[in-house]
């Protein structure tokens, strides 16, 4: 099995106690895009979205937003 990049949108929203809609408003990233990232339904990642999310949540370490995991971990979780 290979590796997969996971965007931790749901975790971020929970940690920062905001909804995806509020994160969308703060980051100027479409709610639909955040939802797709959160649910793992988006195949590509727009790095400008990652930058805007980081700025909106005052995050300086990209590892808080994205993670690289074995695909096997995703299947078992």
From TrEMBL:
InterPro entries: Cro/C1-type_HTH, Lambda_DNA-bd_dom_sf. SUPFAM superfamilies: lambda repressor-like DNA-binding domains. Pfam families: HTH_26. SMART domains: HTH_XRE. Residues 9-65 form the HTH cro/C1-type domain. This is Helix-turn-helix transcriptional regulator. It comes from Paenibacillus haidiansis.
